[in-house]
Amino acid sequence: MHVRVETEPNNELRVRSNEVPPSxxxxxxxxxxxxxLTETMRAENGCGIAAPQVGIHERVIIVDPxxxxxxxxxxxxxxxxxxxxxxxxxxxxxxGVWGMVKRHRSVKVRAHDENGIEVSLQATDLxxxxxxxxxxxxxxxxxxxxxxxxxxxxxxxIL
Length: 159
Fold this sequence. Notes:
The chain is of the alpha+beta class. It has one domain: Peptide Deformylase, CATH 3.90.45. Helix content is 19%, strand content 33%. The chain has 2 helices and 8 strands; from the N terminus they run αβββββββαβ. A hairpin with a 5-residue loop joins strand 6 (106-112) and strand 7. The relative contact order is 0.20. GO terms for molecular function: metal ion binding; peptide deformylase activity.
């Protein structure tokens, strides 16, 4: 089910999310949340979404760098490359605003998938950017907090 996306300046976006308890990993409730997040991300033409963006303060994200959406529950960045680069980001929760954000080029993430199975992945470039952006949401951080240069689109250009 498509869910309404919370937008800035809603203070709920600044709340740190709670971990999904081990007993809930792979549960029907978490699978439904993942389904709703995925449908919402697609409907909004996003490449990532985090549960806090729909008012749910649990550590669940969806990431789609172009090869299909993947869900991560309780994701944690366990290592980062020293190399960084600036990437132009936008956000479903900050409509009409884009900005250059410096991110690590590569990150290693540990999480659980939609079935509660522990996974580990090494992500680079766009996938690494999306993971860092969505994990920031789980900590109440928006890309505009990290932006180097911001661009606002005129209202007639906002889709």
